[in-house]
């Protein structure tokens, strides 16, 4: 059966009940864990691994949650699914809704989201509505909708969280159920932090793993209300968010309370990093032959800071979660390489290629 080949649904004893004939799956969830020598050297640790959630069908971690949210919506006969999105939720919803025969409507901030993600979403046949404002404005508009009219599939939908928690199981399974010391991930709306924390705790409760990892949540400095609240030991105060890592340009994260409970329970921490640090970390992840979109690289940039500050030991066992594929924001990557200082493009005539290669090796 198709659901037995899904890295989400093969854990369905741990998921809410959904009728088998409503399950809409694209073999999501079973993603690779890669060793990361360049990343380790950059962060100043002995060894490091990347959990590459960009290896999902629509190239981001959203698919593990979306298969559950859309299957549930289909089971109860929803005809329209809607989300606010900085691009990845949009693409994932659009693909799964297309396969489920549900109309998809995306509410996207009018500027500052990756053109690659918009194109992908349109390819899957979704309606894309641009709202004046940012992600927070878009999510506010979506949450005000009558749920009888459309299924809201943002991570405020608990089925999304249930699906995304299976990433914790997929990670542990590949390590013979030994938890790492730290799992470091980017934080935006904070659904994924909530989901992974829940996944690790449940794995421990049912005896799959002896302990849970510390969660390290990393925000972009211009979109860091959770990092500030953590530092101040205070409730979250929304901000107007700005960062080139557009996926996590979020100033009023919906799931901050759940995420705070998970980070606390894990003995973890929350921090922020500048956009320039994210850009450099992203290039390093590329050098490991993996690559990711900007928001994902906040994990490695954050790890580097935690090690420099002594919060994470150099000999710790660490996994950085990469949330989206390198091709999710090609304009960003192009800008980075065109800025020139780091890796120049070389243009040669065909007849000069042999000479060029000789000079390289
Ligand atoms: N990384 C990527 C690539 C994302 O797309 C997102 C969120 C995050 C990290 C943060 O995850 O919100 O669960 O804390 N993207 C959402 C979207 C907001 O609309 O695609 P989070």
TrEMBL record:
Ranges that cross the membrane: none
Enzyme Commission code(s) on record: 4.2.3.1
GO biological-process terms attached to the record: isoleucine biosynthetic process; L-serine catabolic process; L-threonine catabolic process; threonine biosynthetic process
Keywords: Lyase, Pyridoxal phosphate
Domain Tryptophan synthase beta chain-like PALP, residue spans: 26-324
InterPro entries listed in its UniProt record: Ser/Thr_Dehydratase (IPR050147), Thr_synthase-like (IPR004450), TrpB-like_PALP (IPR001926), TrpB-like_PALP_sf (IPR036052)
MF term (GO), any: threonine deaminase activity
Record flagged with keyword Lyase: yes
CC cofactor: pyridoxal 5'-phosphate
Coiled coil, from the record: none
N6-(pyridoxal phosphate)lysine, modified sites: 62
Similarity-based family: Belongs to the threonine synthase family.
Protein's recorded name: Threonine synthase
Organism name: Vulcanimicrobium alpinum
């Amino acid at each position: 059966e198709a659901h037995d080949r899904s890295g989400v649904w093969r854990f369905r004893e741990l998921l809410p009940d959904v009728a088998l004939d409503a399950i809409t799956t694209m073999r999501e969830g079973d993603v690779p864990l890669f060793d990361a020598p360049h990343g380790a050297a950059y962060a100043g640790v002995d060894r490091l691994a990347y959990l590459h959630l960009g290896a999902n069908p629509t190239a981001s971690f959203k698919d593990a949650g979306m298969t559950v949210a859309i299957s549930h919506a289909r089971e109860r006969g929803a005809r329209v699914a809607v989300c606010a999105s900085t691009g990845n939720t949009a693409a994932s919803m659009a693909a799964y809704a297309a396969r489920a025969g549900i109309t998809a409507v995306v509410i996207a901030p009018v500027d500052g989201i990756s053109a690659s993600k918009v194109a992908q979403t349109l390819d899957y046949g979704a309606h894309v509505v641009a709202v004046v404002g940012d992600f927070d404005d878009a999510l506010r508009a979506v949450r005000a909708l009558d749920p009888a009219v459309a299924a809201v599939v943002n991570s405020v939908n608990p089925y999304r969280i249930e699906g995304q928690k299976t990433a914790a199981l997929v990670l542990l399974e590949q390590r013979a159920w030994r938890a790492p010391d730290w799992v470091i991930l980017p934080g935006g709306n904070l659904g994924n932090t909530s989901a992974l924390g829940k996944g690790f705790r449940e794995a421990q409760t049912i005896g799959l793993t002896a302990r849970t990892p510390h969660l390290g949540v990393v925000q972009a400095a211009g979109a860091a209300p959770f990092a500030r609240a953590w530092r101040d030991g205070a409730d979250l105060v929304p901000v107007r968010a700005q960062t080139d890592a557009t996926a996590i340009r979020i100033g009023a994260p919906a799931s901050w309370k759940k995420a705070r409970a998970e980070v606390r329970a894990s003995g973890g921490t929350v921090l922020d990093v500048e956009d320039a640090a994210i850009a450099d970390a992203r290039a390093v992840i590329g050098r490991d032959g993996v690559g990711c979109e900007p928001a994902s690289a906040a994990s490695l940039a954050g790890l580097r800071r935690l090690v420099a500050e002594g919060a994470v030991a150099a000999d710790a066992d660490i996994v950085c979660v990469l949330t989206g594929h390198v091709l999710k924001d090609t304009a960003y990557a192009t800008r980075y390489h065109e800025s020139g200082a780091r890796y120049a493009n070389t243009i040669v005539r065909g007849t000069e290629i042999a000479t060029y290669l000789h000079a390289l090796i």
